[in-house]
Each structure stands twice: as C-alpha cells, then as structure tokens.
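Data card: per-record layout.
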Amino acid sequence: MSALTRCRSKDTREECWHVYYGDVQVGTIAIRTGIPHDQARWGWRCGFYPGSNPGECTAGTAATFDQARADFESAWQVFSARRTEFDYQAWRDQRDWTAEVSSLRPRRAHANGLESAWAPRYWLIRNSESIEGVFV
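The structure for this 136-residue chain is written out next.
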C-alpha cells in the first residue's frame, strides 16, 4: 500500500495541495477564498469519484494547515477503510478516458487565447429568409 503524498497545484493562485494515494487523487487541502476573516482559513476535501458513492466524500475547515492536514488524515482513515482496488481502478479508468478524449478533440484558437475547446459557440447565420442557429 502507498502512503499519502501531497503536490502543490500549479493551476491556482492561492495555496492548494492535491493529496494522492499512489496515482489516484484522493483529496485537496487549500486556502479558502472569499470568506470573512473570522472564519476558518483552510478547507479540505477527502474522497474521489468515480470509485465512491454519493455522500461518502467528506469535507471540512480548519484554522491552520496543520489542523486541516490532521482532519484530512482522520477522514482518510474512515474513507479508505471502505475502498477496494476496484474503486481505485474506476478512478484511473475515468482519468485515462478523459485524457484520451481530450487529446482527440481539436483545440480551437481564439483571439485572446481564452476559448475552451469544450465550450460550443452559438452563431447566428442570417439568410435572406430565415435565421438558423449553428454550433461551430
């Protein structure tokens, strides 16, 4: 069995750590944004899908990173006790399928570079007699 490892996310401005069990992302510990200053600053989420049922994933808040990590580890002990190798493989299969589909779909360029390949754009084509909606 693998131990839990953390990896800092490069996709967020705020401090965010992804937690892995082997090659499966099993949770996140991150600074919460947009909350009042008197609220707990750190948030954590334990669980993954597919591979678990709705309601099995847990989340919480903590004042410090160390407390969030300790709370996460406690939640992980409960969550991981009910997981089988099939559950982890279900997550891996979904990850691999998503990567394959993403690699097959061509990326469209946009003037400012922000257009997502997954967001369809609805264009109106005006003919002399009608207006047709077309997804491009």
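Known properties of this structure: The helical segments are 65-81, 85-104. The mean pLDDT is 82.

See the next section for split statistics.
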